[in-house]
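Ticket #547: bound-state structure for glucose-6-phosphate.
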Amino acid sequence: MTAAVAAAFAALRAHHSRAGARDIAALFARDPMRFERRHARLGDLLFDYSKHDVDDAAIALLTGLARAAGLEARRDALFAGEAVNNTEGRAALHMALRNLSGHPMRAGGIDVMDGVLAGRAAVSAFAEGVRGGRLRGSTGAAFTDIVNIGIGGSDLGPAMAARALSPFVQKGLRAHFVSNVDGADIADTLAGIDPARALFIISSKTFTTQETMANAAAARAYVVGALGEAAVPDHFAAVSTKPGLAAKFGVRADRVFGFEDWVGGRYSMWGPIGLALAIAIGPLHFREFLQGGFDADEHFRHAPLEANIPALMGLLGVWHRNVCGRGAHAVIPYDQRLARFPAYLQQLDMESNGKSVTRGGAPAAGATAPVIWGEPGTNGQHAFFQLLHQGTDIIPVDFLVAAEPVDADAHHHNLLVANCFAQSEAMMRGRSLVEVKALLAAQGLPAEAIAALAPHKVFQGGRPSSTFLHRALTPRALGRLVALYEHKVFVQSVIWDINPFDQWGVELGKELCNALTPAVIDPAMPLDGLEPATAGLVAARRALMNP
Ligand code: G6Q
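RESOLUTION: The complex was predicted; output attached.
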């Protein structure tokens, strides 16, 4: 940590301890313009951050921290295609996949846009071919079921978006996403489709991932069993940076969609990894999705930090995590079609910033990524909101809601919106002991009952949240949201001086799994070379299989 960053953090902590626990409702009472002054806009999106326990001085200190950490210069290096992913020696230029400016973008000094545009055109042409029935299965039947086989970054983004944008999916087309090496995943998917009408897309940057290769082999065997070996080229496509491996599998060369290694897995849905989504919603809607991402990029690059949504999102997160010691962050979409959005963000945020060392390899100076979790509202209200309102931990929340439904009933939507706004108000305002006692007295309860019950009905309040309010969940609105969160993660990585673009933490488990698999497969294999803790489990499992 540089001296300037350390000083900025010290100033923030001093401010926090002087101000003590801030009463958000009192901040509103003192400043009737607080809502107006504490929101930012991008297109039809309103980012309302008025309900955080930060006053104007805290916001100034947070933007000062960002400047001390060199956020603007680091952002410019990211967009300039410098090797910001320093442990893998490469750029992180996923923004090029959604660059609609007509201007070059460079990775390591070389313009990548010709390749990006060629890839985009190939995806669009293939998507149109499938949607229009020009490309068909081996029996001549048009495709009705698109099955994406991938995991992690090659699954979560397209799967989340296909669900979010289901009203935009072409009638008669269904997109499925198979990821887990649990054979139930592919078996349940295959059980519901007609092989003659199924197109399988093997999505794997490396084309070596265990889960994806196992599921791809199962899909291949299924196609061969139902339609014969000769049908394979008609029923498979692949997305990978390793076209040779896809060809070996039996995918026709003109159905292998390549991309470059400066696209990280969890940042890849904007390019060919979005193929299943592009087929489902069509190239025009897919372009609208890219447009939303591009809008967010332009905003992140050019808006001053004080009005810059990803910067504010990131800095408020730093306030909660590093200044107030809050270890979790909830994302609650009041939108059933965003049901997978929290899971998508879990990977984006926790795989990017769940790190303990700085870019230079020294121990991180403080806490990094919080635990990200969530579920759609209103369902969550009837489940875990109890803890948000009355639990011992303060968990900041992102509420997301659309002004209008895309194609749902207007009355339902009014109820949904009212619930969303009411929950953030309840978290902020709370209900004091005095208020609770007055309410119980008004209900006619005797004094003894009031004394016993009142503490249970107190809401501490002062619980922070942001609200993201956009007009409707269109492709463009979704692209904007995703890219804003991507940049928020980047902002925090700069403050914490960590590399958000690698993921070495997933390697050890993979290695151990590979070493362990023979003993799991072969019940006769001796267990003496294994860790005693693991040998015990393998033996117990063997015993259960041979009672
Ligand atoms: C994402 C990660 C990881 C990756 C999967 C799938 O950033 O790198 O989630 O996307 O492990 O990898 P492949 O696409 O190579 O199969």
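RESOLUTION NOTES: The chain has a mean pLDDT of 97.
TICKET STATUS: resolved
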